[in-house]
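Exercise: predict the fold of this chain.
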Amino acid sequence: MSAEPLSKTETEHRLESLPGWALEGDRITRTYRLPSHFAAAALTVHIAQIQDELNHHSDLTLGYNTVALSVHTHDAGAKVTEKDLELATRVTAAAPGHGAE
């Protein structure tokens, strides 16, 4: 069963409780700045673990001291769904433990 896409209005409303996340086209995105490259790499591994637990994976980019995510649900026509918001919520909760801003 495929996930149902959320409306733009619903997505924007839900993102209000996820600081730093934004709707860009048909994706939600967030870039974290971290105190070091090692901290960024550690957050990347933590995010990969969360993605595997949810069986839902984002585009994930590791920079020198940044981690960027971009996500939508492919089987919902590449639109934002509840799955994407759950991933964003879990990452938002994990990021401060790595020193992310």
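Check your answer against the key: Residues 49 and 55 are 10 Å apart (CA to CA).
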